[in-house]
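Course assignment 3, question 2. Fill in each field.
Student: A.L.
Task: Predict the tertiary structure for the chain below.
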Amino acid sequence: MIALTAILASCAPKETSLTIIETTDTHGRYDEFANDALVIRQMKAELGDHLILLDNGDDLQGTPFQYCSNQDAEHPNLVSEVLNFFPYDAVGVGNHDIEAGRKVFDRVYSEVKMPVLCANVIDETTGEPYFTPYIIMERDGFKIAVLGLLTPYVVTWVPDRLRPGLRFDNLEEAAAQWVKTIQEKEHPDLMVGLFHSGWEPMAQNLPPDHPLGRENATKWVAENVPGFDLILYGHDHRSRAEKLTNIAGESVYVLNSGCRGAGLAKAEVTLKKGQKPQISVELMPTDGEHKDEAFLAMLQPYLDRAEDYKQREVTELLVSISSDDAFKGPSLWVDEIHRCQLETAEAEGIHADISMAAPLLGGKTLKPGTLKINDFFMWYPFENSLAVMSMTGKEVKAFLEYAYEMKEPIYNFDSGAGIIYEVTEANPMGERINILSMADGTPFDMDKTYNVVMNSYRSMGGGNHLINGVGWPQEEIKNHVVWQSDRDLRSLFIDWAAKKGVLDTETLNCWKIIK
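Answer field:
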């Protein structure tokens, strides 16, 4: 027996080569994915199981046909069909996958043929990871570990009702804990991170000593948590292929393919027994003319069903409106959202005194004519719900001060309705906003408490208007929620617009800029 073992060991390969491909943040744009599909299938045919294909999440929201698929219980979900088509070797979880709600993501992940990886989403009933924390893949006698992690900032964007029974732990701490566990238990030859967390914190993020840690923690983990050889990440939609050095003096390679099928991220890995992995990383554009016909054939029934839905007529628009007009003062693009929010809350029996809203995409225009459901996916691209918050007059002012300071990205540029105010651009933050009165001319009181309606992303702390602007601790924000809708805001917006029949042609004129 000892001799046989020795013979088998001597026959095991002492070196092997692997190609690892990452996709991420497709946001349902599978109609733009046929180039990627062709490249992936060609590589699969050429490399066999020496190709490892990983997806990094944020697949379940972003297009009308993905939304349509999420609501369709008669057919397999589009995401599971795509993931199974190749198939992928593993898939990570993104914040927008969680935002689709447990009813949707539980069904989708039950349909996929590969492991769903995420170590820091915890089932509060068991105290264990809700998804598979990591997998070990064996290739030619070598062990490849893949650990999945998700930014815990999900709790600042996604209401409890969409993620009941789930806890989202600090990513940095989970990375250190699980790398140690995997190294001690599995002794992998290659340690791969599959992170749905961006490169590094932006200015408006919470401080790194916050219990949630960093929203975008990839660079920090790569440099400060020894053990990773390669980290594939997503979330911030910024492609990257880079080599870093961690605190132990070891090389760590990082990759992000970008978003929406714009290309692939590729790592070439050579493994040798007793040696550190040799890795090179690159980005692969996939914008050629050739597309995968089999992939398009699989996709077509979903596109057909969604096209019927997208082309349903909703309402009439009599004037052209642009999202970029929001920077210049009152704009119909935002004011119709304000009107919808105020009137929808009122119809639900919740009086809202003030509305906060922002344009969610820059550079978008709607021209006069009949608006269809597809137009509302551009006007309001996210599945936020609607919320009413209790805020004092001082807090309303602080909210608007912060919103005017954070003009970029455009979805953070909230304006107010239900009040009349001026913005003095030349003044510093804190001294720009002068609230003159309520919209009906009655006094605005800094000490009075008002009901303020906004989307759920903002009401959960998204953009940090309530945290860095108003000054509420993240854990206390929920105490200010008065009401929240059961349906997504875009659906409410469509119903509101359909009931009106013809949209407004005059702005609310609630604010103006003073040079």
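Instructor remarks: The first strand starts at residue 15 and ends at 23. The CA atoms of residues 391 and 450 lie 5 Å apart.
Grade: pending
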